[in-house]
Amino acid sequence: MHEFSELVEHSTAFSLNALNAAQQSAINGLQTSAATSLVKTLQMVQLQKAISAVGMFSMFDAILQEQLQCADGFQAAGELLEAKDEKALNQLFSDLRLAINVLKHGRGRSYDALVKKSASLAFRVKQPDEAFFNEGDVAEISTLIEVDDQFLALCAEVIHGVAGVVNSACQHGA
């Protein structure tokens, strides 16, 4: 799993650089034009960030299932983190798993759980009474989790951290 956890961090940085270049180009274009294509480019950048977050977690789940020989890789990894007394990492991992579920499925149990603890999260959750994260932001897309550069970097960092604990446990026989 070393390869995936390292690649996901590099891939995230690479993707963010490319997306930020496209975003900056569109912002520059909006200084002299109100073209719909420029606004759509900004929205596409936001959508791609959400797709990247969901994708990296989905792939990580499959890798965990294979490495830990189980049906639910996230649950098994969470149990391993708990057993290794990695409380902070396990909490971040759990919070991000809920956030990814919200990105995939919208409102439900995961969303409700995140709303209850939104003040202590490392990322923003749209509250039930909020229509926007940033009103007037033409780039904003309709998600319940704000997927910005920091959120994507956090996803990659947590995957890397969890992979490190799992790899160590597998090498040392759990």
- How does the overall form come out from the CA principal axes? globular
Per DSSP, the total helix count is 6
- Count of discrete domains: 1
Work out the strand percent: under 5%
Helix-strand topology string: HHHHHH
- Low-pLDDT regions: none
What Rg is obtained from the alpha carbons, in whole angstroms? 18 Å
Amino-to-carboxy terminus distance: 15 Å
Overall mean pLDDT stands at 95
Largest sheet: none
Helix content: over 70%
Number of strands: 0
Content-based structural category: mainly alpha
Give a short synopsis of this structure.
The protein is an all-alpha fold. It has helices at residues 2-30, 36-68, 73-83, 87-105, 109-116, 149-171.
What is the topological layout?
Blueprint: H1 2-30, H2 36-68, H3 73-83, H4 87-105, H5 109-116, H6 149-171
Helix pairs in contact: 1-2, 1-6, 2-3, 2-4, 2-6, 3-4, 4-5, 4-6
Structure description:
Helix content is 71%, strand content 0%. The protein is mainly alpha-helical. The protein has one domain (2-171). The longest helix has 33 residues, at 36-68. The protein is globular, with a radius of gyration of 18 Å. The two termini are 15 Å apart.
